[in-house]
Design brief:
alpha/beta, 8-stranded mixed sheet, 13 helices, globular
């Protein structure tokens, strides 16, 4: 049964590894029969959202994540070695000293190259999760958000290579090399839109469910160096922009990811459960935000097994 009328959009925010909690949110929406008419993703949200919109099942996406993290390719990657330096797991003196030296090395490297991570490492990750199709071929209408470093404009991809769009959306400044696309030099969508609520509205969503996976701020913020000042200034700018955009969302889901760093893979097993918990806590609010006919359609789908779109 196909229902016309108001569209429900899902705006998936960026957050690196924390974005894997988006899978848990999608699990709950599926189980509760809440149909999504379009998905817009920023950074990690574009990776998970793009994979799901392309027609892959959530079980397949999660299986791919597990397989990738066990693969020789990941084990040998700079992505893993950089991520380990941010893990809070117990480390002996020598490991801590090694991580301190590596952090300083990568920080200095960022002043001489456009990225810390090799381009091939991140491209292979994108290729592993995202099929080689045009965005217009996705099963669920999809948009990926990026930022042009030349003009400072938010770029919304609605056509062209899905892989290229997701790569551009995930190109974290300093960590992943910007993507050249015509006259644009593209970097992470989170620079201009951490959680793409506005883009979801512009794409036609009448009801927007936003998922933000922002990191919990520590009780004590250490500011001793110029690097600390720059990093904190960026956090404040990002947080302010995000808060403003989230005001336009109908529902905001906030998985409690704690202080997990965006490159720390050590606690990834819990992220799907964290996403599920947050989505379940928001179900009543989500259901009440839906138009009456969508609520009826949802109930029909759950109890009469009618496919709802």
């Amino acid at each position: 049964m196909k229902w016309t009328g108001k569209k429900v959009g899902l705006a998936l925010g960026g957050g690196g590894v924390r974005g894997f909690s988006h899978i848990g949110v999608l699990n709950v929406l599926e189980e509760d029969g809440i149909a999504i008419d379009l998905i817009v993703g920023t950074s990690a949200g574009s990776l998970i959202g793009g994979a799901y919109a392309s027609g892959q099942s959530l079980r397949d996406i999660q299986s791919k994540i597990d397989a990738y993290l066990r693969s020789p390719e990941f084990e040998a990657s700079t992505l893993k070695s950089v991520g380990q330096t941010f893990s809070p797991e117990n480390k002996n003196f020598f490991k801590k000293a090694k991580n301190l030296v590596l952090n300083r090395f990568w920080f200095v490297k960022a002043f001489f190259k456009t990225s810390v991570l090799p381009t091939g490492d991140f491209q292979s990750l994108i290729n592993y999760f995202i099929p080689d199709i045009d965005i217009r071929e996705t099963k669920i209408p999809f948009r990926a958000i990026s930022t042009d470093l030349i003009t400072g404009r938010k770029i919304v991809f609605s056509e062209g290579s899905l892989r290229q769009a997701v790569l551009a959306s995930c190109s974290v400044p300093g960590a992943v090399e910007p993507v050249r696309h015509g006259e644009w030099i593209l970097a992470d969508g989170g620079i201009t839109s951490v959680v793409p609520v506005y883009a979801a509205r512009e794409a036609g969503a009448d009801v927007v469910i936003a998922v933000t996976v922002d990191r919990e701020q520590p009780a004590f913020i250490n500011i001793e160096t110029g690097k600390d000042v720059l990093y904190r200034a960026g956090e404040i700018t990002s947080s302010t922009l995000q808060a403003s955009e989230l005001e336009s969302a109908d529902v905001i889901i906030r998985p409690q990811v704690g202080d997990l760093h965006w490159m720390d893979f050590s606690r990834i097993d819990d992220l799907v459960k964290i996403g599920e918990k947050a989505a379940k806590e928001s179900l009543k609010e989500i259901q009440s935000s839906l138009p009456l006919y969508r609520r009826i359609a949802r109930l029909a789908g759950r109890f009469l097994k009618i496919p709802i779109k």
